[in-house]
Amino acid sequence: MVAPIISNTEVIGVFDLESDELNAYSEDDLQVLMLLASQVAIIIEKVMLHEQLIEKKRLEVQLEVARQVQLELLPAKDPQLEGYDISAYNFPTEEVSGDYYDWVKIYDDQIGLVIADVSGKGVPAALLMAFLRASLRAATHIGYSPHISMAKVNYLLWESIERNQYVTAFYGVLDVTNKTLSYTNAGHNPPLLLDKDGNSRFIDQGSFPLGMFKDTRYHEYYLTTQPGDMLVLYTDGVTEARNSQGEEFGRDRLAEAVKANRQLPARELITTVHKVMIEWTEGKGATDDVTFFVIKAL
After folding, report:
1. What predicted TM-score, i.e. pTM, was given to this entire model?
2. Among 144, 149, 168, 241, which is disulfide-ready with 187 (CB 3.0 to 4.6 Å)?
């Protein structure tokens, strides 16, 4: 006599009773066995749920550790440079983020600035972000110019990651003495530049993302900053945020939000523009990590 143990319409086991006697079991015996099987199914479900809960808590602890480690990798405070107001912030959609920003002091009057977006989300993207940070910082401390640094990091990534992974990044060196920004764009979102008169444009200059091709060539560009100018770097989480009608926030709305609040300090500007995006999506927010990096010339 066989009675299935069923959990959520799935057979997870059976009771199998055998006897040396012919027709040893009656219909009543079968009903009793079926009742027993249903009770056992409930017990097994509880055990499975308990194990899932333990596994979930274990993963939550690991994610929290990963989140804390990632937070340690981001700058603890905004850089202090005479004549500039600089700030950046990351708004993750999960416990850990694939977005990255950083600044590295090169000389007293020079600082390296970077913003990057790793393909994918979650822990795999966060691990790749940590690898990118180490590689780019090493190139910066050696003293490579932005386009050489990008080429070096590109090759390291190409050697180390899967072919379906890549990183978009903007890396520049801000020279306070000469009021210039030398930079390279590796497939990242075009920076938004606002001049002192309120005119805005997106700078569409760059090459392929990091890690896609072995010998990608990167070019170095130069930007002279004047008091009142502002450069806004961002990841695609903000421009690709959608409202209930499926419309993207887009670059034009980003430019309008920045223009309307350009008088604010860099950190407040970031918070305000992010709120504008949240309101436009009717409170849903972005589906991808959002990072802003604002450089204001005073």
Report:
1. 0.79
2. 168
Q: Tens of pLDDT along 67-96?
A: 676 667 789 899 999 999 999 999 987 767
| Contacting residues for 54 by C-beta, under 8 A, at least 6 apart | none
Question: How far lies 227's CA from each of 16, 59, 186, 261, 295, in Å?
Answer: 84, 49, 27, 17, 11
Instruction: Give pLDDT tens digits for 110-137.
Output: 999 999 998 877 777 778 888 888 899 8
66: phi then psi, degrees, rounded to nearest 5: -60, -40
- Host H or E run for residue 3: strand 2-7
pLDDT single digits (tens) 156-175: 999 888 878 899 999 999 99
Distance CA 293, CA 90 (A): 9
- Going by C-alpha positions, the residue among 80, 84, 70, 79 that lies closest to residue 127 is 70
At residue 167, φ and ψ (nearest 5 deg) are -135, 130
Residues in the chain: 298
Structural tokens at position 197: 């008169």
